[in-house]
């Protein structure tokens, strides 16, 4: 909305800071606005521009507080432009999964902050335009079908200025969009939290660009369900006997289909006996292993190959290539490995060799093993190794649950938490928070203590 009811006040000086700053204050339709400048000259210049606009009879925008003559540049930055600039700013240093997450979140909210009008493309088309053609920097030069071109023209014209978020109703619309899926149904709480974090950071970038005076999301405190549970469900954890049976039956999975189960047996062994993440196991090389004929060996983890999708990696491969999770670039994690895993790795190398770059685990064509491939093999192994009631349960439902079982086994064996954390790649506090319910035997011990207290006179 526009208004001609404008008042411009005298400069104010903020003496509370180390260096004085100068405040330009004005109101539009009784709504207050202000801008802070480091020097009096800059503040005087901006105030003079406001006064000239008033003298010329220009209407002032009630959302941004600015006249049309000052709404160019920073003030006119659209939300679509902000999304593009933010991804350009973050793309190079972000991991493939972070790129996917950022693009997903921004593609969900850009279509919300638009002008009403005819010709709006369907939600599916808008999402495809943003995710596949406009937001990811490497995909902006792709050839665009007519339907995509028309949708691009529409969203570029319709996208509202970021300054619209100074109106609290717009902020609520944005938050509502973060909590919905494409079909309008509520998204999971964890999805909402992840998307909100992305949009919050994008708006922080808008503040850095001086397109907003402050982050609008900070003005709204909206609870969304209970906080996502981080503790491992102890029902997914298999005991050592069950783990051995699962690893054994892998030799029968796909026995006539390029030895898929045998090819991945040592991979799953790494997840259990060394408690590594799947991406870390996929990045493991022969040169990273110390495998003696007898006794304990060790592996040195330096790289992870998480599955992310070709769209989001710099190499165009489906798997990203990154350093270890939550570790500095080039940092190594050394994990001692027990004799059963040493034997599995030696047998694997003898039968399947290594990839050209020295990786231990490869597909039959020498590629990084796809998550869909090892998940399919794992599903078949569960059906062979577990009882019918266990197959339909959450017990070891995902390959990652082998890592949970490995860490739990270490804790239950009495290994000190700092040592377990170092081997698993966790901090001690995170380790105990995640695996607190998987430490077996505590319930009996606590019950005995309570009974002892009750028996005392």
CATH architecture of the largest domain: Orthogonal Bundle
Kindly give the count of domains: 3
Number of strands: 9
Provide the structure class: alpha+beta
Q: For the residues shown, what is the average pLDDT?
A: 85
Radius of gyration: 29 Å
Major sheet = 4 strands, antiparallel
Helix content: 40-55%
Distance between the termini: 78 Å
The CATH class of the largest domain is identified as Mainly Alpha
From the spread of the alpha carbons, the general shape counts as elongated
Low-confidence stretches: none
Question: What is the number of helices?
Answer: 17
- The H-and-E topology, N to C, reads as EEEEEHEHHHHHHHHHEEEHHHHHHH
Oligomer: single chain
CATH superfamily of the largest domain: Intergrase catalytic core
CATH topology of the largest domain: hpI Integrase, Chain A
Q: What fraction strand? A: 5-15%
Q: What report would you give on this structure?
A:
It holds the Pfam family Phage_integrase. This is Tyrosine-type recombinase/integrase. It comes from Streptomyces polygonati. Keywords: DNA recombination. InterPro entries: DNA_brk_join_enz, Integrase-like_cat_sf, Integrase_catalytic, Tyrosine_recombinase_XerCD. This protein has 457 residues and is α+β, with helices and mostly antiparallel strands. The chain has three domains: 70 residues, Double Stranded RNA Binding Domain (2-Layer Sandwich), CATH 3.30.160; 142 residues, no CATH class; 208 residues, Intergrase catalytic core (hpI Integrase, Chain A, Orthogonal Bundle), CATH 1.10.443. Helix content is 44%, strand content 8%. It has 17 helices and nine strands. Strands 2, 3, 4 and 5 form a four-stranded antiparallel sheet that branches. A three-stranded antiparallel sheet has the order 7-8-9. A hairpin with a 6-residue loop joins strand 3 and strand 4. The longest helix is centred in the middle third of the chain and has 20 residues. It is elongated. It starts with a strand and ends with a helix.
């Amino acid at each position: 909305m526009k208004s001609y009811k404008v008042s411009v006040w005298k400069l104010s000086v903020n003496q509370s800071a180390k260096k004085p700053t100068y405040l330009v204050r004005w109101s539009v339709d009784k709504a207050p606005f202000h801008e802070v400048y480091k020097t009096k000259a800059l503040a005087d210049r901006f105030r003079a521009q406001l006064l000239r606009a008033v003298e010329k009879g220009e209407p002032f925008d009630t959302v941004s507080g600015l006249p049309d003559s000052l709404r160019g540049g920073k003030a006119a930055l659209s939300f679509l432009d902000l999304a593009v600039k933010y991804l350009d700013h973050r793309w190079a240093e972000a991991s493939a999964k972070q790129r996917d997450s950022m693009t997903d979140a921004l593609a969900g909210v850009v279509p919300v902050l638009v002008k009403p009008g005819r010709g709006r493309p369907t939600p599916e088309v808008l999402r495809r335009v943003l995710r596949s053609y406009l937001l990811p920097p490497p995909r902006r030069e792709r050839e665009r079908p007519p339907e995509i071109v028309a949708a691009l023209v529409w969203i570029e014209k319709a996208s509202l200025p970021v300054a619209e978020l100074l109106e609290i109703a717009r902020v609520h619309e944005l938050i509502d969009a973060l909590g919905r899926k494409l079909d309008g149904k509520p998204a999971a709480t964890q999805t909402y939290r992840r998307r909100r974090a992305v949009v919050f950071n994008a708006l922080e970038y808008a503040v850095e660009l001086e397109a907003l005076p402050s982050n609008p999301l900070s003005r709204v405190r909206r609870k969304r369900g209970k906080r996502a549970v981080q503790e491992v469900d102890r029902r997914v954890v298999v005991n050592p006997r069950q783990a051995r049976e699962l690893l054994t039956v892998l030799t029968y999975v796909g026995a006539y289909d390029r030895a898929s189960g045998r090819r991945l047996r040592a991979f799953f062994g790494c997840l259990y006996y060394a408690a590594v993440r799947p991406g870390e196991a996929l990045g493991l090389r022969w040169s990273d292993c110390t495998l003696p004929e007898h006794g304990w060996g060790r592996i040195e983890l330096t790289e992870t190959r998480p599955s992310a999708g070709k769209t989001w990696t710099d190499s165009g491969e489906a798997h990203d290539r990154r350093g270890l999770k939550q570790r500095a670039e080039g940092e190594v994690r050394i994990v001692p490995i027990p004799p059963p895993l040493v034997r599995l790795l030696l047998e694997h190398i003898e039968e399947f060799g290594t990839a050209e770059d020295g990786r231990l685990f490869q597909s039959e064509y020498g590629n990084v093993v796809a998550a869909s491939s090892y998940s399919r093999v794992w599903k078949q192994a569960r059906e062979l190794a577990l009882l019918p009631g266990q197959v339909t349960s959450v017990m070891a439902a995902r390959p990652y649950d082998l890592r949970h079982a490995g860490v739990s086994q270490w804790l239950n064996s009495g290994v000190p938490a700092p040592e377990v954390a170092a081997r698993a790649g966790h901090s001690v506090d995170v380790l105990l928070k995640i695996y607190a319910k998987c430490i077996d035997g505590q319930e009996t011990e606590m019950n005995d203590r309570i009974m002892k207290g009750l028996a005392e006179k």
